[in-house]
Structures are given as C-alpha cells and as structure tokens.
Amino acid sequence: MQIVADRETCTAAGQCASVAAALFDQDDDGVVVVLKDEPSEAEEAQARRAVSLCPARAITIAED
Fold first, then answer.
1. Which terminus of the chain, N or C, has less C-beta within 10 A?
2. Cβ partners under 8 Å of residue 21, min gap 6
3. pLDDT at 16 over 80
4. Does pTM surpass 0.85?
C-alpha cells in the first residue's frame, strides 16, 4: 500500500494529521504532508481512516 496526497486539492482540514499523526502532518499553510508514504501493516487501518475522513478526498491509497 502507498499513500498518495494531492496537495493542490487539500483544503487543510487536518483530519488526516489528527487521526494518523505518524503518517501525516500539515505545513505552515495547513496543507497535508505525507510523512510516511508506505505505512506498516500496523498503520494501515490509520491510513484508511485518514482517507475516509478527508473532506476534499485529497488522500488516496494505491494498493500494491
């Protein structure tokens, strides 16, 4: 699995960073920053939760 974020689409809601702080952060403008684009198996549920909560649908997961 690979996390992909579209920084142009991001609306800086911060849901991703709030539910998966090990995987996502926000820059000074609040735009998503992917900290770890290939999460461990233990982090996969958090990544999927972040994707589902993103109001702009700026985060997707590419399956291997």
1. C
2. none
3. yes
4. yes
